[in-house]
Amino acid sequence: MACANQALVYPWAFFGWVWLCYLSHDPDPQQVILLLVTIPRFLLIITGVAVALLGLGYLMLELLAPERSYLAAAVAIIVGYLTTMVAYSVTYSSLNKKTNTFVAALLTGMVAKMFAGLITIVIVALRFEEVRGEYVGAFMLAYMVFTSFEVYGLMRKLRPHSEDIKQP
User: Fold this and answer.
1) DSSP readout, 39-57?
2) Which of 4, 63, 124, 162 would be 135's cystine partner, CB 3.0–4.6 Å?
3) Distance from C-alpha of 146 to C-alpha of 160, rounded to nearest angstrom
4) Is the pTM for the entire model greater than 0.70?
5) In whole numbers, what is the pLDDT of the chain averaged over residues?
6) Neighbours of 15 (CB within 10 A)
7) Rounded CA separation 69/166 (Å)
8) DSSP string spanning 101-153?
9) Mean per-residue pLDDT for 5-20?
10) Which residues make Cβ contacts (< 8 Å) with residue 80, sequence separation at least 6?
């Protein structure tokens, strides 16, 4: 129960803690603490990138195309941000597991992120036709930027693990 209290203190680690509980009914407290220590750095970087994208989007839309909807672009960036945080938490929580478990979690996170984005794009395209261009453009940009940072963050975490694997 102490693990649950620690995870609730750090809301950004909640998804990772839930994933750890899903993988094993009794999560190792050291894994939860490791998750709590390392996810905040990634959270800060991705949050900074999201704020920069929101500011850049505002400036570009106000200066270049004031008739376009900033709200649609902002929602697209926020959806990209949230899906990236969930995908990274799911993938990172399985980093110290077996290779098959990590690969399955990585693919699950990436596919879930892609489908969440596609669902929001379809909803916006069908229901809000007047802002679909802004939404799709902003979401694709945010998706590429956030996915790049997610992959970079995971590769940095995998580097020490790849040295432990002996090559034949």
Assistant:
1) HHHHHHHHHHHHHHHHHHH
2) 124
3) 23
4) no
5) 75
6) 20
7) 53
8) HHHHHHHHHHHHHHHHHHHHHHHHHHH-GGGHHHHHHHHHHHHHHHHHHHHHH
9) 46
10) 50, 117, 139, 142, 143, 145, 146
